[in-house]
Structure formats: structure tokens, C-alpha cells
């Protein structure tokens, strides 16, 4: 379904449906959102359904597919600048990558809110913390911050 960080045909269709639901005003789940980021080569805005993980007062995005997932590569190329759509509104954000040594607890929490990611990480929320430390480098984690002060309007993604 996912090869080389890219969804196959069926997953592209399912991701589009998820993106419609995740970004909708009528879907009450606070952990669901749509990440919008400029493509690193085309500059075209891509929309990806994501699960927002809350941990110790912060909000995070986790790549269940690892560092080669397209959204991760696009976010890195865009300097962390993106837009997050949830509950019908869009917010310009800045994503700051968390070093691997600080990811274990966030990854554990992520599996609690995104059970569909469990096969990709190979663990469960009940797995021992050292197991999460072992896989941390393979799964990028980004802290979500408001983009504040960059002159962007809601829904805009800055050029990369």
C-alpha cells in the first residue's frame, strides 16, 4: 500500500477521503487534521491526513512511514512551514523536528491515538519505552507551533 513513502492507487483514494473527513468542521475528533505543504519539486500544495498527538502540553505529528515519506521530505524542504486544517479552519504552522533521543514517549502516545500506525512501527502502546527508543530514529516527529509573524494568511503555504 505504501512503497518508498508513497501511497499506491488505493491508498491515494483512501487518503483523499480521509483528508476530506479530517479537515471537515463536522468531524469532532481533535486528533484528526489535514497537513498542507508545498511539494519540494512542483511547489503544488499537497494535502495529507494526519493524526495530531498531544503529549505534555505540546502537539506533534509523527511519520509512521519514516523519513522518506513525501510529506516529511516536503516539510523539511519548506523549512517546516505548512498549514494545518482541522475542524474547518486552517492555521499556518511551523514544524520543528524533534531529535531522536526525545521521541520515545511521543511515539508511544502516537500509537495510542493512531492505532492504524501500529503495523508500521511494529509496537503497541504497551510496549516498553526502550523499544520506542530503538525505533525513534526511523520515525520523524515534529512539534507543531503557530507560524506567527510571518505574514501568511490562513490557508497559505509559503514558497519553499
TrEMBL record:
One Pfam family per UniProt: F420H2_quin_red
Domain of life assignment: Bacteria
Q: Which organism is it from?
A: Nonomuraea phyllanthi
Question: Protein name, please?
Answer: Nitroreductase family deazaflavin-dependent oxidoreductase
The molecular function terms of the Gene Ontology recorded here are:
oxidoreductase activity
